[in-house]
Design a protein that fits this description.
By secondary structure, this protein is mainly α. It has one domain (about 1-114). Helix content is about 75%, strand content about 0%. The protein has seven helices and no strands. Helix 3 crosses helix 5 (about 70-80). It starts with a helix and ends with a helix. The model has no long low-confidence stretch (mean pLDDT about 95).
Length: about 110
């Protein structure tokens, strides 16, 4: 569980802060569950709506990643209807985790592993 949470947090922060390049993000995504990727991207989209000035950089990194690696989009679409994705969307509000993303990832990973 710890490795999956650590990778998820590194991936999220890599997109959010620009600390990982597109290739590194893709390579890391190959070790991650598609549900985790889907929910992280959904989290980032909710946290950074287009009206926020800081959203431009985050969304540019997401567009770059998904444009260069379209299989990420494919996996995300498949993960949308996964029971864990639906459970999280029905149970939680992403805003609850803006200041504590690791807690969100721990909940998701725990559910994925159960």
């Amino acid at each position: 569980m710890e490795a999956m949470v650590r990778d998820g947090l590194r991936w999220l922060e890599g997109i959010e802060d620009g600390t990982l390049g597109t290739g590194d993000l893709y390579n890391l995504s190959q070790k991650m569950d598609p549900v985790l990727i889907h929910l992280i991207i959904k989290y980032l989209r909710k946290k950074y709506p287009s009206i926020k000035p800081e959203a431009a950089a985050v969304m540019a990194r997401l567009v770059d990643l998904t444009s260069n690696y379209p299989e990420i989009v494919k996996h995300m679409k498949e993960a949308e209807s996964d029971p864990v994705s639906e459970w999280f969307a029905d149970t939680y509000n992403f805003g609850e985790f803006y200041s504590k993303p690791q807690e969100m990832l721990e909940l998701i990973v725990e559910k994925l592993e159960s």
